[in-house]
Amino acid sequence: MTQPLPKFLTDKNLIPNVEINPDLNLLGTESAFDFGVEVMNVEKSGKFPQIYKFHVGDTGPKTPQPIIDVAIQALKDKQTKYGHFAGYPQVRENIARYMSETRGVKIAKENVMLQPGGKPVIEFAIQALVKPGDAIIGQDPGYPIYESLGRFYTRDNYIPWSVRKDLDAGTFEFVVEDLEKLLQQHGNVKLLILNTPQNPTGMIIEKEKLEAIAELVKKYKFMVLFDDIYDQILFDGRKHFSFLSIPGMLDWTINLNGYSKNFAMTGWRIGFIVAPEWLIEIFGKFAINKYTCASRVNQIVAGTIFGDVDLEGYHYRYIGDKLKDIIEENRQEYEKKGKFVVDCLKLLKPYVISNDVQGAFYEFPNFERLFNLSYVKNELGIKNDQQMSKWLLYERGIATLAGNGFGPSGVGHIRFSYAEDRDIHIIPGIKHVVKSILELIEKSGAEMPLKLEEVEARVEELRKKHFGIS
């Protein structure tokens, strides 16, 4: 029986002239990048004077100058040949020392490997650990690449750990008892994927919950892919707690981390892995087969963020002390923007239910009650989050992401990334969102939570509350 072609091919009328892998039907995508093409097309059309961008989890701040200066010097020194496939020993030593100090567990350079960006280790972990018939558990909603690669490599044996939601309170909770039930039902789970602070909800997994998960690791014997790429972007004085910090969990953890989010280096594509030495050895073989190495310049930069680097007669000084205040200023700005977005969306309650943000730079409000309004449902034909996201872009010039791209539990939600510049995108953009939604409520003849003429004053109050008078 001939298998249907993947939708991503048929959507573009691309027909292979040979039989292809049927498992490609299970391969997903990262909706931010696919949808980004549509955003660019609308932007080029000139339909709107500006597109307000809440769709991509890129960083608003630019890469700090001390990092750029190191890269420039490395280029001047002609550091342009192949790099070490796993990362130069001194660079790995610097990262190991930093992770040991911040995680409270002894990590050696043999536990560390550099990678281009953060994604490769997701695939590495699955390829190294998961054999036919094994299963993977991941958070739902969650970063879509976990599910995409998980389903592809397990032939659809990816199990969602569904969040519990309180719609009225706007809260999310991943319940450990629910996770254990999944482990009991599926005795072949080899890998659990955790992300905290989390994309798309902006929530964190607390220390006590991670410790309870560690007990399940001991009981059921599975590895944990622990993604804490946003570990320095936390709000309200919260401190990051790592799965590595739990006694004995270094042996069971593959830690995905890097420089993209904390250091505003998304386009540099440089990250690192912390894992048991035997896994690092396997990952090194994968690296040689797949991409050879992270670039030499990026490796030098990655090392100087945590210590000095000496390479082939050249010395590059530690720059972490120069970055500390910059990173903290960026964190504070993310916190202000996040709370501003949440408070603005609260003006739309009960039709839009926002959730309080704890870290990263995402807000994941629920829009389901809006879809039940007569004008929205009957006149516009908007019945779900995907249609809502399209309407916001094509009719209002507001780029957001539909929640269904983050898993079944994301249905009914819209993800707002508030990473972009506050004055260009966040403040005017969220004001435009509030006005646009109020117009839909008004046209439906429903009770208005706020009058349209009050929006300017209310948003200005919130601007002053979160950003001060300027």
Task: Summarize this structure briefly.
The protein is α/β, with parallel strands linked by helices.
- Note the gap between the termini: 67 Å
- Percentage of residues in helical conformation: 40-55%
Contiguous runs where pLDDT drops below 50 for at least 5 residues: none
- Strand proportion: 5-15%
Quickly give the structural class: alpha/beta
The largest beta-sheet arranges its strands as: 2-10-9-8-7-3-4
Mean pLDDT: 96
- Number of separate strands: 16
Coarse shape: globular
Radius of gyration (CA) equals 23 Å
Number of helices: 16
Largest β-sheet summary? 7 strands, mixed
Features:
alpha/beta; 16 helices; seven-stranded mixed sheet; 470 residues
Q: Could you describe the 3D structure shown?
A:
The structure is a single chain. α5 runs parallel beside α6. β7, α8 and β8 form a beta-alpha-beta unit. The chain has helices at residues 7-10, 31-45, 65-76, 89-103, 120-129, 144-154, 176-185, 207-220, 277-290, 296-304, 320-346, 368-371, 374-379, 385-396, 422-443, 455-467; strands at residues 52-53, 112-115, 135-140, 158-162, 164-166, 171-173, 189-195, 223-227, 253-258, 271-274, 309-311, 314-316, 362-363, 398-399, 401-402, 414-417. Helices cover 42% and strands 13% of the residues. It has 16 helices and 16 strands. The strands form five sheets. Strands 2-10-9-8-7-3-4 form a seven-stranded mixed sheet, sandwiched between helices. It is globular and about 70 Å long. It has 470 residues and is α/β, with parallel strands linked by helices.
